[in-house]
Amino acid sequence: MRFLSSRWKMRTNFPAMKNKTLLVISREYLTRIQKKSFIIITILMPILFVAMIVLPVLLVTLHEQRQFSRILVVDESEIFINNFEDSKHYEFSYRSGDIEQIKKEAFEQDFDVVLQILDNSQGMKSNIYYKKSLPTGLQSEVEDQMDDIFFNQLLKDSLNIEPSRYENMQRLAKAESATIQIDEQGVEKEHDAEINQIFGMVCGLVIYFIIIMFASQVLRGVLEEKSNRIVEVLISSVRPTQLLIGKIVGIALVGLTQLVIWIALSAAILGGVQLAAPHLFSDEEVETVTNMTSSGDLVPEGAGLSVAPENIFEMIQNYFAISFSAIILCFIFYFVVGYLIYSTLYAATGSVVDHESDSQQYTMPITLPLILSIVFVPSISTNPDGALAFWLSMIPLTSPVTMMVRLPSGVHSWELFLSMGLALGFLVLSIWVSAKIYRIGILNYGKKPSWKTIFKWLREK
């Protein structure tokens, strides 16, 4: 082992280290971006991301565009006659007489539903008859209107209150609150705290999976080259440190390429959806309230008005306590630094074992902090300013996940910069440790080294 180490120290006739490292980076990068799996995942991920945003809105729109239904009402209680409100989805007609005869004639006259309201002595009950299929939402629509009609009748008969006046009293008594965050400069911004929590959790989970995914590629690449003895050929012309740096940086560039393509494709697809169907993400005033009712009750000006954002990007931007572009930049930073930390440690692990199954003994202590940060994601998202969230966002092995969970809800600038600085400092330490281990372990075959042996390698010059 000392002989092999001394051989590497004696190599002084290599070309410039920079050129050979670039060759390794180029090899790792080009080999991976040409794989079909890379192309498929790169295309599918933005589509899935956009689908998560667009599909819920589309489903609501389709639900609102459901079929038109004609409903024939047979009211035995005589309370609901001519009181149901027609809409763009429902049209109500009224008949009285024998229910069996009415049902037969109604379906022959292309009515979709026959609504039989039973006599009031049996309570407010009804039967809905249909032949082909029950229109979506019709049952709840009928029940809601019956509740309102019956309640309004009670207001008039028992309390002598007009329904319109009661509605305005309800509107005035309804409490509404907005969540407004004040940043370090004293600027106030309204945002949805729940959306921030959910988005932070998603960011944390995504960055966890991509760090593990790309770091594992480094581990498998090192193990493959070592088990096939390809590494012996490579280090005949490339130093082990050059090979390590080239492999890590090459795969990092693959990850960054994929990430940039994901962001660009997602923005392009969202923009295309916005142009193709602008009505999905913009709307006119939701509700207009008159300033004065027939009974003379005043309503605050603008009450009940709700104006939607102009486009989908404005809608996304309004969700968060900080700039969405800042979230993207921080995501890229923590992905790169988190990946480099874990990939260097994984590369060192791959160099000391011969098979991937043997690597679990060494990778588990490394991966455990990252898994721990995932376990605490729910607690961190609900209390992003707590002590647990703060300290986990300062520890370099957990900060990539934890800080991304906290970021959409807003963090102090000094906390963010301190977390970044600690992560960069730990990265330098990780590179030094991994290079020491990789330099010796890459040509170590047979028996797995103990932790004591690995620490001994770190002390060697």
Commentary on this structure:
This protein has 17 helices and 6 strands. It is of the alpha/beta class. It has 2 domains: 2-6 and 15-52 and 193-459, no CATH class; 68-161, D-Maltodextrin-Binding Protein, domain 2, CATH 3.40.190. The protein has a 4-stranded mixed beta sheet with strand order 2-1-3-4, with helices on one face. α7 (193-227) runs antiparallel to α15 (399-406), α11 (324-352) packs parallel to α16 (413-441) and α14 (387-394) crosses α15 (399-406).
Give the arrangement of secondary structure elements.
Layout: H1 2-10, H2 17-33, H3 36-64, E1 69-75, E2 90-95, H4 99-108, E3 113-117, E4 126-130, H5 138-159, H6 163-173, E5 180-182, E6 188-190, H7 193-227, H8 230-234, H9 240-276, H10 312-317, H11 324-352, H12 360-375, H13 377-382, H14 387-394, H15 399-406, H16 413-441, H17 451-459
Parallel strand pairs: 1-2, 1-3
Antiparallel strand pairs: 3-4, 5-6
Helix pairs in contact: 2-9, 3-9, 7-9, 7-11, 7-15, 9-11, 11-12, 11-15, 11-16, 14-15
